[in-house]
Amino acid sequence: MCSKMRTPVVLGTFILFSLCTCQKREVSYNGQKVIRCFDSRPTEVGSHVLTDASIDIWAIHANGSVDIRVIDDLERVTRELASLFSSCVTIIDSVEEFISQYERSQRKAVNSSYAWFDSYHDYSEILFWYQELSDMSELVSYEVIGESLEGRIMPAIRITSGSREGKQKIFFQCQIHAREWISGAVCMFIVDHLVSNYGISDKVTEILDQVEILVVPFVNPDGYQYSWTTDRLWRKNKRVNQGSSCLGVDLNRNYNDHWNQGGSSSNPCSETYHGTSAFSEPETQHTANFFMDPHSTPIIGAIDWHSYSQLILRPYGWTSGDAPDESILKELGDQMSDVIYKVHGKRYSSQKSIGLYPTTGSADDWFYGEEATAANKGYRAASYTVELRDTGQYGFLLPANQIIPNGEEIVEAVLHFSEFCINNPLRSR
Hints:
Blueprint: E1 4-5, E2 9-11, E3 14-16, E4 19-20, E5 33-38, H1 42-47, E6 55-60, E7 66-70, H2 74-84, E8 87-92, H3 95-112, H4 123-136, E9 140-147, E10 153-159, E11 168-173, H5 181-197, H6 202-210, E12 211-216, H7 221-229, H8 282-292, E13 299-307, E14 311-314, H9 326-344, E15 349-352, H10 363-368, H11 370-374, E16 379-380, E17 382-388, H12 403-423, E18 426-427
Parallel strand pairs: 11-12, 11-13, 13-17, 14-15
Antiparallel strand pairs: 1-4, 2-3, 5-7, 5-8, 6-7, 9-10, 10-12, 14-17, 16-18
Helix pairs in contact: 5-12, 6-12, 9-12
């Protein structure tokens, strides 16, 4: 499939162009499988499975089952998993064929439709989309918060009506893990809905009149583009790790909140490698600096968008103890789950992050934690990680025809989240 210029399409109230970039990966997944294991023992899973370089954890579900891509050394891995789980079943027998089918469906979606949300888009297309949107709408301002390791622009979007001065903020960041394409797509869907419905929807209008929405479209632009050109299942950034042939740092283990205190790996070949220090990576530095910038605060709510598993995760990931605002955070998470369910009948489980497995150095714990709160003008952000569709049928390879329905259910949750945070802002203690 060759590159082609797409004709104009109407997206909400805006006419945008799309320059389609062909997906052409270089990595083969021959011999790899995805298995689902049941009845895990979380402590042992966290200390062993999550740090094994031959294993790629795709998802841990609310019922305790774990989806695991076995990259190599199948016999050893199978033997060790048998000691950690009561049973395992194969859910994808050939990762290579599964991804090949996905690539064919993506090409078909691009060739058969001119609607923006009918297909996924690469880094340059998405960057252009946000730039054009800011040019076309006085609600939207565009700025650059820094550059990635490989020199790609990291933009941020501000959405509000009138002056932003004195307004509380709501913060969204997207695409921290490269392979989770639905994250960036849903973020665009949210932005488009807010901008297109201002002055039409009373709810949207009231929200944008009261707060400013901050969006970081790419936390991991290098990894995201690499997932288009080379390795569809790439997760980390593109850090060259000294003394190792393995690339990348897991940016969602690199924030300065209980960094390297469990739930991450010191092995650069691991998918959860936490880096050499907290905020060792420019991508996490830039997002944190933007979050704490006086022009960005106070932030009353923050969501880090991921996939997959259909989960609404609240602090903490580093301890089983309750956050100071546990009752409010649980109430809001449960309400968001109910709102989502009413749209298309998809159930998202609302729970503490550590209910799945320990994580440290994560973005959502940092949003809620002491360093970010100290810069937040007396407020503490109601913070969540939301894992989008699905629950494992497609995993990271969610078909493009699910972008719109996933966006529709999440938009309703975002509107509820925004209203709740406006009416119930958390004060620092």
